[in-house]
Amino acid sequence: MRRPQVSQALIYLADLQRETLHLLTGQGLDAAGEPGGEEAGIKIEGTLPGRAYQYGQILHGGRSDPEEQQWWVPLLNGTERLGVLRLTTQADDARTRENMELLASLLALIIVSKRQSSDSYARLMRTEPLNIAAEMQWHLMPPPTYADSRVAISAAMEPAHHVSGDAYDYATAGSVVHVSIFDAMGHDTAAGLTAALAMGTCRNTRHHADGLPVPETLRRLIHTLRDYHDGQLQDDATILICRWLGPADAPVADETDRT
Length: 259
Hints:
The chain is an alpha+beta fold.
């Protein structure tokens, strides 16, 4: 089998607000030190790498010298966009493009498998410090994008570094899709705790008593919050709980297309 003719590979990961692509060098506490003359940050809006990231397409970046050319390749975890690769190759044919896609898929799997236990990844994703509530919520919430053959779900949280009592959750079970949105009153840690507790209650109900009507899930959620507040509901909260019963998810030819 012919070896992929890739002479250089650079990894750029999107920040929490999906505004900038940051070079992952593996150096320093944020894994972004010593860029070696390369661009450390690239804006997503209005740039070629940003377009590859936004549209999920391999884009030609021009020639780095007469014998080599550069490509911007999206890094995808199913439908979740992680960032882009900048690859330098000698060839420009179907086999080279296939190898670039395979390399991007492999690197995306490695990044996703390591990010939950990596402080360097967490630092690289931030352009400013998170408040305590945001620290909790971003670790509790699922990825912001999901899609299968029946449904597409996408979420955004702003201000991303100060989300406080706001949170979202979703999950699938057979033909059922669950979506929940939480908005606890306040912009402090107490609001974050209330939203986290509400999310945990909804998940616990789904995992151990799936099939209950939505009003019963809401009743259990209110009961849990009252227990936490010594029998009183001290704060207001807006909670949206949706359960969609659709057709079974159809199999896809390529499992990398799914989250």
